[in-house]
Design goal:
The complex is a heterotrimer of chains A (388), B (731) and C (409).
Chain A: H1 9-17, H2 31-35, H3 44-48, H4 51-60, H5 79-83, H6 90-103, H7 112-121, E1 150-153, H8 156-160, H9 162-177, E2 182-183, H10 194-198, H11 202-219, E3 223-226, H12 229-237, E4 247-250, H13 251-260, E5 272-276, H14 290-297, E6 302-306, H15 334-344, E7 349-352, H16 355-367, E8 375-378, H17 379-385
Parallel strand pairs in A: 1-2, 1-3, 3-4, 5-6, 5-7, 7-8
Helix pairs in contact in A: 1-4, 4-6, 9-17, 13-14, 15-16
Chain B: E1 5-10, H1 21-31, E2 36-40, H2 46-59, E3 63-68, E4 84-89, H3 91-95, H4 103-121, E5 137-140, H5 144-155, E6 160-163, E7 178-179, E8 190-191, H6 194-203, E9 207-210, E10 214-221, E11 224-230, E12 234-238, E13 240-243, E14 247-249, E15 266-268, H7 269-277, E16 292-299, H8 314-328, E17 333-338, H9 347-356, E18 360-371, E19 377-383, E20 388-394, E21 396-401, E22 403-405, E23 470-472, H10 482-503, E24 520-521, H11 531-535, E25 541-543, E26 549-551, H12 561-565, E27 571-573, E28 576-577, H13 578-587, E29 600-605, H14 609-618, E30 627-632, H15 640-649, E31 653-658, H16 672-682, H17 684-689, E32 697-701, H18 710-724
Chain C: E1 6-10, H1 14-25, E2 30-33, H2 56-69, E3 73-76, E4 79-87, E5 90-97, H3 111-115, E6 119-121, E7 130-132, E8 134-135, E9 147-148, H4 157-164, E10 177-188, E11 192-194, E12 211-213, H5 214-221, E13 242-249, H6 264-278, E14 283-288, H7 297-304, E15 309-313, E16 318-322, E17 325-332, E18 337-343, E19 345-350, E20 352-354, E21 379-381, H8 391-407
Parallel strand pairs in C: 1-2, 1-10, 2-3, 10-21, 12-19, 13-14, 13-19, 14-15
Antiparallel strand pairs in C: 4-5, 5-10, 6-7, 8-9, 11-20, 16-17, 17-18
Helix pairs in contact in C: 1-2, 1-8, 5-6
The chains are: A alpha/beta (388), B alpha/beta (731), C alpha/beta (409).
């Protein structure tokens, strides 16, 4: 009997107050856990992380789920949220539990430097602010002014990570080519805060978001183009309640419109078979499936394969929810599944349109030793390749 | 009986191509002495109809026999006013399943004519038994079910008598504070408006209510029940009865393992309802606040040691009760501990709603319920969702207890029926007789209380109990919620009304709706063996002091089980009797031994074997032509004399095709198939006496949808008989 | 209470048949209208009922017997009620009758079907077989009269069919008819259809042939069905060695049917018995959220005790092809394990959607489309249009509906 746990329902109520509005709605059917991409891997995380159980423990105010492999395993891919028969938002619930722990000072080891970097320099890459525009190199990148139509908000990843910078440059090139009125703000920008919010750092998120909102407003920003679906998500869904109402779109949406209007045309025949991966934050979270496909369809000589688990059923790359900053052991990586999916369709390029997806899937390509067979590219990069 | 018989052979649908019509006609006119035998290429057509009508008018025929398609086909077309029509199956059971133009098929065709003739000689058109009847309805129980049954019957123009044991109408519902939602959007509790129903009953001039009263006795039979009302000292005459005596909550004193009786702050769901009604939602021990309340589902239900069944409503009742707790204290925390949450249909929405308000649902096994140190209770569970034990401290534990039908513990009807005073339940089985020579055991059931829910063919005919004219409704019939009980009341009231309407015309009520025959007993030959009075599944027969059966025609369902039971063969219907079947057996031509043609008598249940044979024929499946089908209303009417006579006459075997017996019985007369099979097991003695093998007599259970198996069953039987060799009694 | 006006009963399934018979036997005239060529509704397609595992044909035979004798009951098949005017006690209804192309002279001898070369999808057998273009639905088809699906029939076959009939029953020129009837009461018993489970994208999207619905399993298990009662995989005709029943397939789900259909757990338990009998060596699974076995606990307990059957709490999260067979993923909640189960066949326990779209009268229904008493004043709903229910309940309901026609003011 002494082994029995004692529920602390007030804790459950507190978690609900923090944002887990749907915590009690769960009827414990197990669909979330059964369909979770962690079930497709074989390792410790698969055994430990159980979204259903976690939420039940949350309801009862019990503990025992705090580990990196459990509470912090969730990549917030949204598959469970899309399917839940009771409309339980497991992401909000897990995030709220993480928030509760963060308030008590619990932060996974891997995240501590990230939190520090964001607090000090407004980016999660342990770099200084002044390096935020280093990706530009010798590209013609306008500065945003009051007369500029679009603010291009480049994801921190593509600002600082060498590989990912190519994506930023590709997007910039395309915008220039299409004659779009666009510009960046640069060093004053901070990280959008999407992922840090997901790991429970609510206060930090609010600080970053409010900072950005004030900055954008002061610059007269009305329309934003993002390179990352994560930034898109938070600007469109989370910034408004903090006072930031902007017209936001992902760059593929704009490109699709430009292509339709004849303002952007790709002439080079790439003669490629590519497999398109729907990023969770573009697809499930923002309901954008068609635009990137339209853009790819405009590439001459490019066969775009639909993988079996596509669109609403797309499998997460494993980078969301903060996990891009956490090490996932080989053999347990979602990215591996995606790479194999693409190879099964005889694709030589796995194309996507999210910087986290690119990082995660490239790591998998290398980890699986398939770099001779397949490359990971962003949509923008392929378009640039196809420009005459 | 003398008849002026016209035989008509339809030559359509391949019949004309299968047999020698002339030869058949000869049998009809010469052997059977039909007034005429004609044929027509399509009897079911307008021309065919006129063809026969002309003879009915011109020749004064009183019986018309059609050797055509199955009796299940073309009934509307093959009717000529009130003329008695006999159907001989020359299509599905002859032309479509046997070799055309074959001597054995021909022989079968001719035998059926002979059988018809023989039967007509000993049968007549039934004259209905008409009695003066009351169409008043007795409703036992004045709860929501009984009141609604009464209102429905009264609104339909019938006088109703309600007998209620408490001093006010309303039954269990008087204790219900609010109801769980049955109206969209299924989110809010609904008011319990029992008062307006009580008022409507009180106001209705066709309804008489006896309060603080119970049934003293009910004598008589449907149409003429004489009811004594104890408490009121009254007597009433009614035609039919709706038994709506409701339920009692399961006795929680047996639930000590869940803390009841041992821990003060453990109550039942019913007690909680009382607390809510009285506005006293506090701890029983010290009137402290209810900050944490734990509901334990299936308390004494779905449990072999208590109530083995699920009462279907307790999940929704607990959901409702969490709202009582929340309404009294919006800070309260409630837990529902369940095995399965059972909220079917739109009740699922209410479940969802209650979840949204913060109640925690845990699938769990209860390990213990003990008193808390400071009052309240501590419930320890194995939380199945976690795979770990959890200990919950709470102020109150509510045990969701199930429904026990009132008939489980009290006598409600006190029928003066020889077989017992109450409606037989599914638990109670009739005893079947012992050996031929012994007198039947007398089973005194006068004080019997039934085992539980009244037995009925509950899937397709949910209202039919084993007592004609008496219908159970509401939770006494099966566990149910309030809305379902109201629906149930409507149906039972209808059945009560319809039963009297049919009986007053001398017609059977169910399942042989409209049958105007009734069993006649030649009592001067009765030996008081009591088989019929015991075996009748419907208690249709009472007994006098000597044990002589006293038939009650309105109770009767016309199955003929009594006819089969009687060793002296004194029971028969005008159109269906031991003699009528016997005559058919005698009418069949059994070939002499040297002809090497087997003869098999096959008794066929009209309700499933006959249709199965029709379907086998429609599918053009072939089988042995040496089998002669005799259709029975129920194989329970099997009289062993037929087997003795058939064997003595030289039949090689007797096959019975009927429905499934046992717990999942299919017999529309409850035990017909079982009785037939039991009687058959006694036929061994007869066969031994005749020095015949027991395999010559067999029973096979048939299901209509498995008609494809029937030809195989028949042919396998024929093969077995072939291996045994011909019956040495053949000429 | 009008004595002479008929009652209109719309829907010839178990509810409609029961109401019609009860009223007719009480001496009330009844008009029974059924949209398809045959009555019997969904139950006529079931192999057995729970919990007795008895065939529906048993009860239907009694009912059809009663129907044949019913004196004042007119049955219209191929008929739909398109207009309802008036109110309780005095309605004028318009009934549109589509041509059957086979008249009352039909003797059901079957010569027409012999002569017909064209085929159609057999809806009675849930699309798992074909019938001729002129057909009877099942062996208990009532009325026992053929019907021609003219659109499915080749032009060239039409004269062959006509000539094959010796009784002049094939009438290729039959035209649609419109009937107008005065009735005193209306009982609406139009039954249900299965939820289109292909909408649940993680359960195979309706693209996998060996993932079938519960209605299809009834047909497989029926000894007079398309496989003679053998549980065979639609893809390759192989006898199953492993079958899983997936409960709440599109039910209790806000994204599909939010309500519970109440009978699918019992239906699956029943179907488990089918598999155990027809394929005794097969391994059987049932995956559920809660097992809603209602009043039939003993029935459930018996199956729980069967060692070849694993009943597992966990909602199935995905189904996909794996090799020659199927694979299913689910969390076994009680053990905490994640299961990948390889199977020959999966049966999706799909829910009940009431047939209440396009009602010819005003009605305020609940969000799910169920028509309740009082939703359309004067119209008495019976059966599954009111709420999901099993056969015993719809017969109870239908009997009550008969009562209500007598007592409604």
């Amino acid at each position: 009997m002494s082994d029995a746990q004692n529920p602390e329902p007030e804790l459950g109520e507190a978690i609900a107050e923090m944002g887990a509005e749907t915590l009690y709605w769960c009827m414990q059917c197990g669909l979330c856990t059964g369909g979770c991409p962690w079930r497709l891997t074989d390792g410790d995380i698969n055994k430990e992380f159980n979204a259903r159980k976690l939420q039940h423990q949350g309801q009862l105010g019990l503990e025992g789920y705090e580990s990196d492999n459990n509470l912090f395993a969730c990549t917030t891919c949204g598959l469970c949220v899309a399917r839940c028969p009771r409309d339980v938002n497991a992401i909000d619930n897990i995030r709220s539990i993480r928030m509760m722990l963060a308030e008590g000072g619990t932060v996974p080891q891997s995240y501590r430097p990230i939190v520090g970097s964001l607090t000090d320099n407004g980016n999660p890459w342990m770099e200084t602010r002044d390096k935020r525009t280093a990706w530009i190199k010798d590209l013609d990148v306008p500065t945003y002014t009051e007369d500029t139509e679009y603010l291009l908000y480049v994801c921190c990843t593509s600002c600082y990570d060498a590989r990912s910078q190519k994506i930023a440059r590709a997007v910039a090139t395309l915008l220039n080519k299409a004659g779009v009125s666009w510009g960046i703000i640069g060093e004053e920008e901070s990280c959008c805060g999407e992922s840090i919010r997901k790991i429970g750092q609510e206060e930090l998120f609010t600080t970053l978001a409010e900072g950005n909102i004030e900055l954008f407003k002061s610059k007269g920003v009305k329309k934003i183009i993002t390179t990352s679906p994560h930034c898109l998500y938070t600007f469109a869904n989370e910034y408004p309640e903090l006072g930031g109402e902007f017209e936001v779109q992902h760059y593929t949406q704009l490109l699709a419109a430009l292509i339709r209007d004849g303002k952007l045309k790709m002439d080079k025949d790439l003669d490629l078979t590519v497999a398109f991966h729907d990023p969770c934050y573009l697809g499930r979270h923002c309901d954008i499936y068609q635009d990137p496909r339209e853009v790819l369809a405009a590439l001459p000589g490019t066969r775009v394969m639909e993988m079996t688990r596509n669109r609403e059923s797309s499998i997460c790359c494993g980078g969301g929810g903060g996990r891009v900053w956490m090490e996932t052991p080989p053999g347990e990586r979602f990215g591996d599944l995606r790479v194999n999916d693409a190879l099964a369709h005889d694709a030589s390029v796995l194309v996507t349109t999210c910087p986290y997806c690119t990082i995660m899937m490239e790591a998998s390509v290398l980890g699986l030793d398939k770099d001779e067979e397949i490359a990971v590219k962003d949509v923008a990069e392929l378009l640039v390749d196809a420009l005459a | 009986m003398e008849h002026k018989l016209g035989v008509y052979i339809c030559t359509g649908c391949g019949i004309g191509d299968a047999i020698d019509i002339e030869a058949v006609a000869k049998i009809a006119t010469d052997d059977v002495k039909a007034a005429l035998c004609k044929n027509h290429e399509c009897l079911c057509s307008e021309e065919g109809h006129a063809f026969v009508q002309a003879d009915i008018d011109g020749e004064g025929l009183d019986v018309v026999a059609l050797a055509a398609c199955s009796m299940r086909e073309k009934q509307a077309e093959l009717t000529w006013g009130d003329t008695w029509v006999e159907r001989i199956n020359y299509r599905e059971q002859l032309a479509w399943c046997h070799e055309p133009n074959d001597e054995d098929t021909q022989w079968l065709a001719e035998d059926y004519i002979r059988m018809l003739g023989a039967r007509l000689g000993v049968t007549s058109k039934p004259v209905p038994h008409i009695e003066e009847m009351s169409d008043r309805v007795l409703v036992v129980g004045g709860g929501i079910t009984g009141m609604n049954a009464a209102l429905f019957a009264a609104k339909a123009g019938k006088e109703v008598v309600i007998v209620e044991k408490e001093d006010a109408l309303g039954g269990f519902l008087k204790r219900v504070h609010k109801r769980f939602p049955v109206l969209p959007p299924y989110e809010e509790l609904e008011d319990n408006d029992i008062a307006s129903t009580v008022e409507a009953v009180a106001d209705h001039d066709k309804i008489t209510v006896y309060l603080s009263s119970t049934i003293g006795k009910i004598d008589g039979a449907p149409g003429n029940f004489d009811v004594t009302v104890d408490g009121a000292g009254a007597s009433e005459k009614v035609g039919s009865i709706v038994m709506a005596a409701g339920f009692t909550p399961y006795d929680a004193s047996k639930l000590t393992h869940l803390g009841y009786g041992e821990v003060k702050d453990v109550v039942t769901s019913v007690e909680l309802e009382d607390m809510a009604s009285e506005g006293k939602l506090v701890r029983p021990s010290d009137e402290g606040d209810l900050d944490t309340v734990v509901f334990i589902q299936c308390a004494g239900s779905r449990d072999a040691d208590h109530l083995p069944y699920c009462s279907t409503t307790c999940c929704s009742v607990s959901l409702k009760q969490t709202q009582y707790i929340a309404d009294a204290n919006d800070e309260a925390k409630t837990y529902v501990l369940y095995k399965d949450m059972r909220t079917p249909g739109q009740w699922e929405t209410f479940y969802q709603q209650v979840q949204k308000q913060g109640t925690i649902f845990v699938k769990s096994e209860i390990k213990s319920v003990v008193a808390g140190d400071d009052g309240g209770a501590v419930v320890t569970i194995e939380d199945v969702l976690l795979g770990e034990d959890v200990e919950i401290e709470c102020d109150l534990v509510v045990l969701a207890v199930g429904q026990v039908p009132a008939c489980k513990s009290e006598q409600l009807l006190k029928l003066g029926y020889r077989q017992g005073p109450e409606l037989p339940s599914m638990d109670a089985k009739l005893e079947v007789k012992s050996d031929d020579d012994e007198e039947a055991e007398v089973v005194d059931r006068k004080d019997e209380v039934t085992g539980g829910f009244p037995n009925s063919h509950f899937i397709c005919f949910p209202y039919e109990t084993r007592r004609t004219g008496i219908y159970a409704a509401g939770p006494v019939r099966q566990p149910m919620d309030i809305a379902s009980a109201v629906d149930d009341a409507a149906g039972a009231a209808f059945k009560a009304i319809k039963s009297v309407a049919l009986m007053s015309e001398g017609k059977s009520v169910h399942p042989r709706v409209g049958d105007m025959s009734w069993p006649d007993f030649a009592l001067q030959r009765c030996t008081q063996c009591k088989r019929c009075t015991e075996e009748c599944p419907f208690g249709a027969l009472d007994e006098d002091e000597k044990g002589t059966p006293k038939p009650n025609p309105t109770r009767c369902r016309r199955c003929g089980i009594c006819m089969g039971a009687c060793p002296e063969r004194i029971v028969g219907f005008a159109d269906y009797s031991v003699q009528s079947i016997n005559s058919m057996i005698k009418g069949i031509y059994v070939a002499e031994e040297w002809e090497e043609k087997p003869a098999v008598l096959c008794l066929v249940c009209e309700n499933d074997a006959y249709p199965a044979l029709d379907m086998a024929g429609t599918a053009r499946m072939k089988y042995s032509p040496f089998v002669r089908f005799v259709t029975m209303r129920c194989l329970g009417g099997l009289n062993l004399q037929w087997i003795a006579d058939a064997m003595a006459k030289g039949f090689d075997g007797v096959l019975l095709l009927g429905c499934k017996a046992g717990d999942d019985y299919q017999c529309h007369f409850i035990q017909g198939s079982e009785l037939a099979q039991t009687r058959l097991s006694k036929v061994q003695e007869t066969l031994d006496r005749l020095m015949l093998e027991s395999e010559r007599v067999a029973f096979h259970e048939i299901e209509i949808d498995n008609f494809g198996a029937v030809p195989g069953i028949i042919d396998d039987f024929m093969e077995k008989l072939e291996a045994l060799g011909p019956n040495p009694f053949k000429d | 209470m009008s004595q002479s006006k008929a009652t209109l009963v719309v829907g010839g399934g178990m509810s409609g048949i029961s109401t019609a018979l009860e009223l007719s036997e009480l001496g009330r005239p009844v008009i029974l209208v059924e949209k398809s060529p045959f009555i019997g509704g969904k139950v006529a397609t079931f192999n057995k009922y729970f919990p007795k595992l008895c065939p529906p044909t048993c009860g239907l035979e009694i009912n059809y017997k009663r129907l044949r004798k019913a004196a004042n009951l007119s049955l219209h098949t191929q008929a739909q009620v398109t207009k309802v005017d008036g109110g309780p006690g005095d309605y004028t209804v318009t009934i549109e009758v589509a041509p059957r192309y086979v008249n009352h002279k039909c003797t059901a001898c079957g010569e027409c079907a012999e002569a017909c070369g064209s085929e159609r999808d057999d809806d009675f057998n849930q699309g798992m077989a074909k019938t001729k273009a002129i057909y009877l639905a099942g062996h208990m088809a009532y009325p026992h009269r053929y019907v021609l699906d003219k659109e499915a029939c080749d032009e060239a076959d039409l004269p062959k069919i006509k000539d094959a009939c010796k009784y002049g029953a094939v009438d290729l020129d039959e035209t649609p008819q419109t009937l107008t009837e005065q009735v005193g009461a209306i009982v609406w018993a139009t039954g249900w259809e299965s939820y289109d489970v292909s909408k649940v994208d993680y359960l195979g999207k309706g693209e996998l042939p060996d993932v079938i619905t519960n209605l299809q399993m009834e047909r497989l298990a029926d000894p007079s069905g398309p496989t003679g009662g053998k549980i065979l995989r639609p893809s390759d005709g192989k006898e199953v060695e492993s079958v899983a029943f997936v409960q709440c397939a599109g039910s209790r789900d806000i994204n599909h049917l939010p309500y519970c259909s109440g009978i699918c757990c019992l239906a699956s338990l029943k179907q488990i018995c089918y598999v155990r009998e027809a394929a005794p060596n097969a391994k059987v699974y049932m995956f559920h959220i809660d097992v809603r076995a209602g009043k039939y606990e003993e029935f459930y307990a018996k199956i729980q005790a069967d060692e070849a059957v694993e009943i597992i709490k966990g909602k199935v999260a995905s189904i996909f092809p794996e090799g020659e067979g199927l694979r299913l993923q689910v969390e076994n909640i009680e053990s905490g394990e994640s299961l990948k189960v390889d199977l020959d066949m999966i049966v999706l326990a799909t829910g009940i959607v009431p047939n209440t779209a396009d009602l010819p009268f005003e009605a305020t229904m609940d969000d799910y489309g169920f028509l309740m008493l009082g939703d359309a004043p004067g119209i008495i709903p019976a059966g599954c249009v009111r709420r999901p229910a099993d056969v015993a309940t719809v017969v109870q309901d239908a009997t009550g509906a008969a009562m209500r026609t007598l007592t409604q003011e």
